[in-house]
Write a structure and sequence with these properties.
Layout (H helix, E strand, L loop, with lengths): L1 E4 L6 E4 L3 E3 L2 E3 L5 H6 L8 E7 L4 E8 L7 E7 L1 E8 L10 E7 L5 E4 L3 E7 L4 E7 L8 E3 L17 E2 L1 H4 L14
Parallel strand pairs: 6-14
Antiparallel strand pairs: 1-2, 2-10, 3-4, 5-12, 6-11, 6-13, 7-10, 7-12, 8-9, 8-11
Amino acid sequence: MTFEATPIPDLFVTRLEPISDDRGFFSRAFCAEEFRERGLNPAIAQCSLSYNRKRGTLRGMHYQKAPAAEAKLVRCIRGSIFDVAVDLRPDSPAFLRWFACDLSSANRLAMYVPEGCAHGFLSLEDDCEIFYLSSQRYAPELADGFRYDDPVVGIRWPASVAVISPKDVSWPPLAFSSTETRK
């Protein structure tokens, strides 16, 4: 697999390197050693699957606070999504910047989202499935988020939001101290 750097430190788009023959192809989708070599967290504590019935379903923007801050490797295995990460690390040169990438079953890209970044996505078609590898187990008491349309971040979503959970639509705006994300 290859790692494509983004404007956000330690946030990468990964691309498969398929070995093809008459049967189809084979490709490594994850290798802990390759992540470790780049200084990225290779731990996998939990794998999750998100199914989204309708185009325009928005999930986000989510993150977990320390000590359960998590890195994620996100791949769309059916359909397509607009996948977004926001850097919430106050000491990062990309603090409060966002990066997005279309992930789809056709392009087979994945996004590595490091600890300290929020994550969310918008489904671009009906019946999307997204598969996550997470470095930490979900800790509901440390889960946090902010509104997908928070003006501090200014994410430019490519389509209208048709479906969103009551929790995601009611997240408060971002608020930061000088050294950490909202408590």
